[in-house]
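Ticket 4471: requesting a sanity check on a complex prediction with GLP. Repro inputs:
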Amino acid sequence: MRIIKAKDYDDMSRKAANIMASVITLDPSCTLGLATGSTPIGLYKNLIAAYENGNLDFSKVHSINLDEYKGLSGDNDQSYRYFMNHNLFDYVNIDKANTNVPNGLEPDSDKACEAYNEIIHAAGGIDIQLLGLGRNGHIGFNEPCDHFPKETHCVDLTASTIDANKRFFEKEEDVPRQAYTMGIQTIMQAKKVLLVASGADKADALAKTIEGPVTPEVPASILQFHPDVTIVADEAALSLV
Ligand code: GLP
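Returned structure tokens:
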């Protein structure tokens, strides 16, 4: 694992954006694995700035997002499709037809997951997978459990995740209880993984990710086995390492 210590959130965002930008520059028709959550917002702002300055071209880029809440439509401002449109896609020259997020409106979980797996297989591999980190060590919506799920699946969100994500909703009851998420095997098959983490509330999960035993109880710990992982985290997030 390559660990890059950033001073603060802005420094983390800039450093991580540079890594992602270099992948796009080297291969303009690359497939990006993208993530939501508050952590990558600054990274996306840096990518938008690079595009506006004429330094990045997304016209041939494809993207595959990690996850989506089950039951939310892309128009719902809490859906991850909405997040991606409003934090990146609407501001760069990516062709939205080349962007993929699980279909939260498909009520049949098997159908939704199979359809997403087909999209992932057809893409022929993810060049760089961006990840945030849940306070309980989750990646995407792969919550702590007794095994590492392989491909896209439907998960019951844990109380810790519902609690962490309720800040984005009007009331806790509004937080969906289930989500569709890319599996751990798919994440591990990405050529490169870039994990970003900021703030003291990620310190425990990040220390376990980097130094703890590899266990599905801390899903991100599996990244210790990936040959090309870069973690860009600020001092607060790295305070227990
Ligand atoms: C959600 C997402 C994850 C994300 C996590 C952390 O649960 N499914 O992909 O990494 O939140 O979010 P934040 O960056 O806001 O702390």
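Notes from triage: The chain has one domain: 2-174+196-234. Leaving this open until the requester confirms.
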